[in-house]
Specification:
2 strands
């Protein structure tokens, strides 16, 4: 909004001219979201505690320690992330850019699903919220609308193509199947982050790392000079998603301030479904869907651990892991929660570097 308001005065006013620079607006978006989070966080946590007498319902079949250490902690902290992310993006992004609106649609739409899910859990004092099928149907509907929108904005063969890392000219033409693949990426990323969100700080830091990587990718993909130098597909207009990703980083850091062990608030499905959907949507716009699977490899492994556990238990009646998702397996093995969280953060950083390497290895 500020960019659009200041644009007519860019040649006369120094500050207005400064808003032309994407790097400045990205940094400002990050700082705005962070400061807003730190200012609004304490009040929101007090409000959530007053409304949630029992806090987030704890699964009785989960790690025994959670029934003690996490009892009474309020959930729906994702409201803090989404509100500061949205305000910062609207303040600093070019609102004429349709990619920004498409990504916000997915982020806030998935966040609304999570909010309803959290509300049902709290109102019933149960860890069971919306049915899995119900959530999936609405997620697919939102993802489908966003995918068709993105495809139309991008246009041409690029709009319906799937770019493959490590190959500079390979673009798989998906045609009418592009929205299906895009929906799979968005919904898959959303639910993968949701499954990872089980320990204090475990999901938010890998999300921040992935947002940093995709903020850089969005900037490079949207810049003709760098896209040509790196031999990656140029998608004009994606640079504005760097502002969105920076705002996500700031909002995530602000939330982490209150979610660091021992957590004062959980993000809940309100946050985890939205953040995963946001990463998926940015990956689709920038034509780096496959790279998301690398950068977000931790989320992928957590999801696969659940799939393997369920599949093998149904076939043999035995478990592959002591408990799924994978972080609970290590809890059962006796690892301390901070040890698991920090080691998983390290893995996320390594995977982020591998994902960045795909930009140059062509």
């Amino acid at each position: 909004m500020l960019f659009n308001l200041a644009r007519p005065f860019a040649d006369q006013v120094v500050l207005a001219n400064l808003l032309r620079y994407l790097t400045f607006r990205s940094g400002a978006a990050c700082m705005t979201a962070l400061v807003l989070s730190l200012l609004l966080g304490p009040g929101l946590i007090r409000l959530l505690k007053s409304l949630q007498r029992q806090g987030q319902p704890i699964r009785p079949d989960g790690p025994e320690s959670h029934l003690v250490t996490k009892k009474g902690t309020p959930t729906m902290g994702g409201v803090l992330i989404l509100s500061t992310l949205t305000v910062s993006t609207l303040l600093w992004a070019d609102l004429r850019n349709q990619y920004v609106w498409a990504v916000l649609l997915v982020t806030l739409g998935f966040g609304a699903i999570g909010f309803v899910d959290d509300y049902i859990k709290l109102s019933k004092a149960s860890f069971r919220g919306l049915s899995g099928r119900g959530k999936l149907i609405v997620q697919v509907a939102i993802g489908l609308i966003a995918s068709i929108w993105i495809m139309m904005v991008t246009g041409g063969s690029l709009g319906s193509g799937l770019s493959v890392p490590f190959f500079k000219d390979l673009l798989i033409p998906l045609g009418i199947f592009f929205p299906l693949v895009s929906v799979f990426v968005m919904v898959g990323a959303s639910n993968a982050v949701n499954l990872t969100d089980g320990l204090d700080g475990l999901a938010i830091v890998p999300t921040i790392i992935a947002a940093g990587v995709f903020g850089l990718i969005a900037w490079l993909v949207g810049n003709h000079i760098f896209a040509d130098y790196l031999r990656i597909r140029e998608v004009p207009g994606t640079g504005e998603l760097g502002v969105f990703c920076s705002a996500l980083i700031g909002a995530g850091l602000g939330f982490l301030w209150f979610n660091a062990p021992p957590a004062r608030v959980f993000m809940g499905d309100t946050g985890s479904l939205a953040l995963g959907g946001a990463l998926g949507a940015v990956a689709v716009v920038t034509k780096h869907e496959i790279v998301l699977a690398i950068v977000g490899g931790l989320f992928v492994v957590e999801t696969v651990s659940v799939i393997v556990q369920v599949f093998w238990f149904k076939r043999t009646g035995k478990r592959v892991f002591l408990m799924a998702p994978l972080h609970h397996h290590f809890e059962k093995k006796g690892w301390a929660e901070p040890t698991i969280v920090i080691r998983f953060w390290i893995v996320s950083m390594i995977l982020a570097l591998v994902g960045l390497a795909t930009l140059k290895i062509r």
